[in-house]
Amino acid sequence: MDxxxxxxxxxxxYDEKKLIxxxxxxxxxxxxxxxxxxxxxxxxxxxxRVSDRETAEDICQEVFLKAWKALPKFKGQxxxxxxxxxxxxxxIIDYYRKRNxxxxxxxxxxxxxxxxxxxxxxNRTPQSQILENKEFEDIISExxxxxxxxxxxxxxxxxxxxxxxxxxxxxxxxxxxxxxxHLFHAHRKLRDMLLPYLHNEHIGWLINA
Length: 209
Known about the structure:
The chain is mainly α. It has helices at 8-11, 16-24, 32-50, 53-70, 80-99, 134-145, 149-159, 165-172, 176-198, 204-207.
């Protein structure tokens, strides 16, 4: 892909949707303006997480190669940058997983329901060590955002606001049993969504936006 296809001053003249459509039809050169538009932002994000310029450059190239190959599957249900960003997160996860696989906790040990399930802040149990990785926090946040509204609301109250079950039930005017049921289903859904990380697989729901 030749990034000299257009100059920066010309980039604003291109309709992103048209470029996506042309790329999806096989015009590979139409992807170059997209690379020019987002490359620096993606590179900066990667560098913040790996702290090595050469590594960040390698990962950045991998991101846009994968984005180019996957673009035919892009459905346009999210902003293109968000879609590329998610691919970048997956690439960063792959990088850290290959380097530190022995440090990754077994997600299958996550309970289907417990009132003390770790989240992205607060607890420092052995299981919560996996959440200390910034990239995995991003994945957790994205997974939580995909929960049904009721489960997501209860999950945030329990782990972001750190409210006891009793207080959540009172605030939402629901029984404690109902709150526990929401948490049970939220935990089970999150575990199923995150298991690909353990199995050294791409997280399909993350990039198929």
